Recover the amino acids of this structure.
């Protein structure tokens, strides 16, 4: 009887262990800082990462930025959880607007994940030469057994919208002569 009571009492304490292990969990941007070059591709993928999570199943993440400096062109899920954009939805009271992106994603019938990895991939374009903070206000994860809500420590980032001094617009001119060939179609030319 005493042994049975110790087993029941011990299992009660172990049921809460995964939630306690979440004190070191973080959420952050990669790369940080990120750069968008107006005279380049004018595009930069910024990933939202989770660090040191234990038994994660879902997340609710909000990203805020200055819509006068950058534009969120597209987003997709990362590879940490086994989810697709079909497993995500907007918060019904917080629609996605320029400067504000909130998404809630969950994996269904998959094992809980432990470790670090990308949750989201956000593609930004630049609107003007400046910098904007990328902030993560109040991120929340569903983790542990039983599932509980945890609040990871966020690290905000920076998105620089600038010109790359090494990219120089140049004009290329020249001529090409083909001897012994009347038709010039299909000729491959390489520049190095």
């Amino acid at each position: 009887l005493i042994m049975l009571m110790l087993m029941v009492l011990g299992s009660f304490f172990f049921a809460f262990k995964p939630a306690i292990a979440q004190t070191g969990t973080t959420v952050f941007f990669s790369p940080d800082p990120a750069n968008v070059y107006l005279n380049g591709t004018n595009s930069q993928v910024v990933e939202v990462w989770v660090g040191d999570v234990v038994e994660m199943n879902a997340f609710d993440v909000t990203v805020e930025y200055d819509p006068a400096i950058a534009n969120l062109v597209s987003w997709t899920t990362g590879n940490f959880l086994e989810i697709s954009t079909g497993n995500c939805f907007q918060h019904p009271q917080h629609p996605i607007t320029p400067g504000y992106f909130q998404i809630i994603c969950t994996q269904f019938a998959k094992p809980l994940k432990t470790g670090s990895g990308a949750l989201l991939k956000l593609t930004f374009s630049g609107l003007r030469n400046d910098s904007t903070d990328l902030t993560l206000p109040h991120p929340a994860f569903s983790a542990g057994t039983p599932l509980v809500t945890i609040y990871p420590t966020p690290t905000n980032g920076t998105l620089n919208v600038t010109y790359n001094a090494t990219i120089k617009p140049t004009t290329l001119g020249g001529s090409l002569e083909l001897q012994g060939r009347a038709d010039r179609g299909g000729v491959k030319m390489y520049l190095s």
